[in-house]
Design goal:
Elements lengths: L3 E8 L2 E10 L4 H12 L7 E11 L1 H12 L10 E5 L1 H10 L6 E4 L3 E3 L2 E3 L5
Parallel strand pairs: 2-3, 3-4, 4-5
Antiparallel strand pairs: 1-2, 6-7
Helix pairs in contact: 1-2
């Protein structure tokens, strides 16, 4: 079982949460604790969730993100950004229709010989 961790980087007027590992039922409490700590401080549009190191997310993990948004129904149309979303997580977002709740930036890397590299390096 791979663990889950969240790294928090406070910037001037925004926050980046770097998600790492497997976001499943075991990782939800960690994510929930972090999201609770930022709810009062940042509007959803000021929040970026960096998913480039996220290897897996199931319905429980997605549910934690959606629950965070429901706590923020006082904010107009601002959406948090999901950056570096991989294929499997993107599929989960699309199948559930929750991709519309976020500004989604898909992972733009391709794989060569089992290692990701930037297209610019090709």
């Amino acid at each position: 079982m791979q663990s889950f961790a969240v790294e928090v980087l406070h910037l001037d007027g925004s926050v980046v949460l770097t998600l790492e590992g497997e976001l499943d039922i075991n990782g939800v409490p960690t994510l929930t604790d972090v999201l609770r700590s930022i709810i009062a401080r940042y509007d959803p549009g000021q929040v970026t969730l960096d998913c480039t190191r996220l290897t897996f997310m199931d319905a429980a993990g997605l549910g934690a993100l959606v629950k965070y948004l429901h706590h923020r129904d006082d904010v107009d149309d601002d959406k948090p950004t999901l950056r570096g979303v991989g294929r499997a997580v993107m599929r989960l977002l699309r199948v559930t229709g929750t991709n519309a709740l976020f500004d989604v930036e898909e992972l733009a890397a391709v794989v060569r010989h089992g290692e990701p590299f930037d297209i610019e390096d090709a």
